[in-house]
C-alpha cells in the first residue's frame, strides 16, 4: 500500500522541507518531493500532516525503561511506553545487578522478548556495566572486574542481540574482554566509555576495537580528575578526551531543568563536537525512589535511595524539545541528534534514522509548541500506523 504524508514540514537530517510530500510503500520510504509533484499511484492514501512536522522515528541507544517499567523486568510495557513518544528503534539497556546470575537473567529476559517478537521497536541490547569504575554512578557499588567466565555468558544469553556495552577501560580485564566479546559476536558490538576515569591512552587503545561512543557525557565522569599533577591545573579525563576525539560520539541527557547537564555545557559540547558528534539519549529508568526534598518538581529526572541522580523519566520527544530550548539549535539539528546520529553509531543508517529512499518507513508526526515542546500525534513503524488516530 502507498501512503503520502502531505501538508506538513518534512525533516531530513540536514534541512527542513515545508510544502513537501513524503511517499512510502509498504515498509519503506520511496521519495520526498514537492507537494503534488511525486508520481504517486492514484489509489495512494493521503495522510493529512497539516501543521505538523514529519520526521524520522527517534533512535534511543541508552534506555532502561519506560513509564514506570524496567526493560529487564517488563520489556513490553517499557518499550511500548517509549514507542508512544516516537522511539521507533532502541537499545534496551540493562542496569547493574548484585550477582552475575541476575545480570545474566536481565539480558536473557530482553533477548527472549526480542526473539519472540514482543518488542516492536527494540533493535538490540545495551549493557551499562557491570564492568565499571566503582567510584562513579548511581549503582557504583555493584561494579566489578571483568572475568571471562562471566562476560562470555552475556554473548550467549543475548542470542545475537547484544549490540553494545558501557565499559570503564581502566578496570581489570576490560581491555581483553572487548576483544573476546567482539570475537564471540563476530564483531557486531560497539563499546561506550562511561563510569570511568580512564586515561587517554587506555581509551585510545580500544577505539580500533569498536569503542565509538561516550555514555552520558558529563555524568558519572563529569568532574575533573583530582588531585591533578600540578596544583591549579587540569588533567585530561574522559570528558576532555571525548571532546577531542572525533571518532567518539557523545551521548547527552537533556532533561528539562539541566540537572544532568547544564544548558551552557550542552552548548559547549555541541560547539566542540559539531552536529554529527552528539547523540541524545533518555537514560530512562523504571520507577525508583521518591525525589528528595526540593526536587519534587523534576518530572523527567529519577533519583536513587540516597537522593542522587539515577537516570531519567525522559522520552525522546521531550529530550529533543529540551535540547532545542536549552541550546537554541534548530529543530532539524536536534532531531538529527535523536535519530540520524544514533542510527549512525549503530551502523544502521542504511535502514533507520532518516527519511530517505529505501529506508524503513519509521515516521513521527508531531506538533511543535512555542517553547519547542513536541506533541506526538502519530507514530508509524515500518509503514504501519502504530500510535495515534488516522488522519
Q: Which properties best describe this structure?
A:
alpha/beta; 25% helix; eight-stranded parallel sheet
Task: Walk me through what this model shows.
This protein has helices spanning 75-83, 100-115, 148-157, 174-184, 200-206, 238-244, 263-273, 316-327, 331-337, 340-345; strands spanning 2-6, 9-11, 16-18, 20-25, 28-34, 45-48, 53-56, 58-63, 65-66, 69-70, 87-94, 122-128, 162-167, 190-193, 211-214, 249-252, 278-280, 301-303, 309-312, 363-368, 374-381, 384-387. By secondary structure, the chain is of the alpha/beta class. The longest helix has 16 residues, at 100-115. The protein is globular. The mean pLDDT is 94.
Q: Determine the mean pLDDT.
A: 94
Q: In order across it, which strands form the biggest sheet?
A: 8-11-12-13-14-15-16-17
Unreliable residue stretches: none
Give helix % range. 10-25%
Please give the count of helices.
10
Supply the helix-strand structural class.
Answer: alpha/beta
Sheet bearing the most strands, described?
Answer: 8 strands, parallel
Instruction: Tell me the total number of β-strands.
Output: 22
Amino acid at each position: 500500500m502507498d501512503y503520502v504524508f502531505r501538508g506538513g514540514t518534512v525533516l531530513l537530517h540536514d534541512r527542513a522541507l515545508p510544502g513537501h510530500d513524503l511517499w512510502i510503500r509498504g515498509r519503506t520510504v520511496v521519495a520526498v518531493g514537492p507537494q503534488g509533484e511525486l508520481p504517486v499511484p492514484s489509489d495512494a492514501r493521503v495522510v493529512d500532516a497539516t501543521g505538523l512536522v514529519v520526521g524520522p522515528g527517534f533512535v534511543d541507544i541508552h534506555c532502561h525503561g519506560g513509564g514506570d517499567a524496567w526493560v529487564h523486568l517488563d520489556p513490553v510495557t517499557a518499550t511500548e511506553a517509549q514507542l508512544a513518544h516516537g522511539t521507533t528503534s532502541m537499545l534496551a539497556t540493562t542496569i547493574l545487578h548484585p550477582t552475575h546470575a541476575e545480570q545474566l537473567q536481565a539480558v536473557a529476559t530482553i533477548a527472549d522478548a526480542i526473539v519472540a517478537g514482543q518488542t516492536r521497536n527494540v533493535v538490540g541490547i545495551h549493557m551499562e556495566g557491570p564492568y565499571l569504575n566503582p567510584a562513579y554512578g548511581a549503582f557504583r557499588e555493584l561494579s566489578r572486574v571483568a572475568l571471562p567466565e562471566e562476560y562470555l555468558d552475556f554473548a550467549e544469553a543475548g542470542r545475537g542481540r547484544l549490540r553494545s556495552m558501557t565499559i570503564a577501560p581502566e578496570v581489570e580485564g576490560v581491555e581483553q574482554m572487548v576483544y573476546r566479546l567482539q570475537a564471540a559476536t563476530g564483531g557486531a558490538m560497539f563499546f561506550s566509555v562511561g563510569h570511568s576515569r580512564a586515561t587517554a591512552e587506555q581509551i585510545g587503545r580500544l577505539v580500533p576495537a569498536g569503542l565509538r561512543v561516550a555514555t552520558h557525557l558529563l555524568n558519572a565522569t563529569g568532574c575533573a580528575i583530582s588531585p591533578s599533577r600540578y596544583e591549579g591545573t587540569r588533567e585530561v579525563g574522559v570528558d576532555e578526551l571525548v571532546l577531542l576525539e572525533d571518532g567518539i560520539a557523545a551521548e547527552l541527557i537533556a532533561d528539562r531543568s539541566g540537572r544532568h547537564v547544564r544548558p551552557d555545557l550542552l552548548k559547549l559540547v555541541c560547539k566542540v563536537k559539531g552536529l554529527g558528534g552528539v547523540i541524545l539519549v533518555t537514560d530512562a529508568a523504571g520507577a525508583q525512589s521518591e525525589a528528595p526534598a526540593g526536587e519534587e518538581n523534576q518530572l523527567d529526572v529519577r533519583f536513587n535511595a540516597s537522593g542522587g541522580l539515577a537516570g531519567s523519566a525522559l522520552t525522546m520527544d521531550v529530550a529533543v524539545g529540551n535540547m532545542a530550548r536549552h541550546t537554541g539549535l534548530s529543530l532539524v539539528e536536534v532531531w538529527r541528534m535523536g535519530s540520524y546520529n544514533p542510527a549512525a553509531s549503530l551502523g544502521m543508517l542504511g535502514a533507520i534514522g532518516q527519511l530517505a529512499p529505501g529506508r524503513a518507513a519509521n515516521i513521527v508526526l508531531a506538533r511543535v509548541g512555542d517553547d519547542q515542546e513536541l506533541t506526538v500525534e502519530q507514530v508509524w513503524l515500518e509503514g504501519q500506523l502504530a500510535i495515534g488516530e488516522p488522519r
